[in-house]
Design goal:
It is found in: Cell membrane. By secondary structure, this protein is an all-alpha fold. It has 10 helices and 3 strands; from the N terminus they run βααβαααβααααα. The structure holds 2-acetamido-2-deoxy-beta-D-glucopyranose. The site of 2-acetamido-2-deoxy-beta-D-glucopyranose has 9 residues, from α2 and α5.
């Protein structure tokens, strides 16, 4: 008889980076340093935007959301990974695994939608500067931010649901550093083809739509910049290219991760992709989106001047 009980596997084991046994301590030190840097940078941005009234504008509220997201989704995965690097016990309960998968997916999808919202915000600011405060009113911004969060948590529920609907009865070693859908699907003891198609289609909708909207916004921005005065153009252009680079890195790695068939899933390679959009993006986001910004820099200088 096929065991169809959801709880037939009481726990999973996260192998993480244990295939390099001699490197555990080095990896621990490097990842810890990166994690602390992520916490520091993102909290700094978050606090600056909260306390400085010059930064009470839509763009900065979205950036505060982004920093909050970056802190949250790295905290869902990295501390556990650090613990597992030091300990022999690398298990996670079935329920723990579902919760981790769900929260990570929710925050990841929210982040993708938020990138699109921020691209739209820049589009309005550059292409319709006179109507900016009218279009991006306080209530519109709150609605847009809320929609990203609600959308993220809703679609993640669907995604997690279809993954955990499958029976897990045999192998329980996850060759990854946290419970992520493609790595878990590998362990299902049932035909995963239908699930894979659903994951793929959701990937198209959830990743490609924001990417498409972002590209459209930036095309409009570039066209607008071409016909406006030369001064400031270079700066706006460099801001846009920085944003596009960031989005391409984050969404590109996620596209690669979620949109290739499970048969071509290689845990050894793909956990580095995962690490990339999980950790590297959270590390670079504040540098690229906020700390290059002159208002944020101004607020930082002012804060340090007070001390
Ligand atoms: C996210 O953005 C919204 C809309 O601007 C804002 O009201 C909210 O306070 C932000 N949330 C966080 C956690 O920064």
């Amino acid at each position: 008889m096929e065991p169809m009980n959801l709880f037939s596997v009481p726990e999973f084991i996260l192998l993480g980076f244990s295939s390099q046994p001699g490197m555990q301590l080095l990896l621990f030190a490097v990842f810890l340093a990166i994690y602390l840097a992520i916490l520091f940078e993102n909290s700094l941005i978050f606090v600056l935007i909260r306390i400085d009234s010059h930064l009470h504008m839509p763009m900065y509220f979205f950036l505060a959301n982004l920093s909050f997201l970056d802190i949250s989704y790295t905290t869902i995965t990295v501390p556990q990974m650090l613990l597992h690097l030091l300990s022999k016990e690398k298990n996670i309960s079935y329920i723990g695994c579902i919760i981790q998968m769900y929260i990570f997916l929710s925050l990841g999808i929210t982040e993708c939608i938020l990138y699109a919202v921020m691209a739209y915000d820049r589009y309005v600011a550059i292409c319709h500067p006179l109507h900016y405060t009218l279009i991006m009113s306080r209530s519109v911004c709150v609605k847009m931010a809320a929609s990203s969060w609600v959308g993220g948590f809703f679609f993640a529920m669907v995604h997690t649901g279809i993954t955990m609907r499958l029976p897990y009865c045999g192998p329980n070693e996850i060759k990854h550093f946290f419970c992520e859908v493609p790595a878990i699907l590998k362990l299902a003891c049932a035909d995963t083809r239908v699930t894979e198609v659903v994951v793929f289609v959701m990937g198209v909708i959830l990743l490609m739509t924001p990417v498409f909207l972002i590209l459209v916004s930036y095309v409009f921005i570039l066209v607008a910049l071409r016909i406006s005065a030369a001064e400031g153009r270079l700066k706006a252009f460099s801001t846009c290219t920085a944003h596009i680079t960031m989005v391409t890195l984050f969404c590109g790695a996620a596209v690669f991760m979620y949109m290739h068939p499970a048969s071509s899933y290689s845990p050894e390679r793909d956990k580095y992709f995962s690490f990339f959009y999980n950790v590297v993006c959270a590390l670079l986001n504040p540098l690229i989106y906020s700390l290059r910004n002159k208002d944020v820099k101004g607020a930082l200088v002012k804060l340090m001047g007070k001390k």
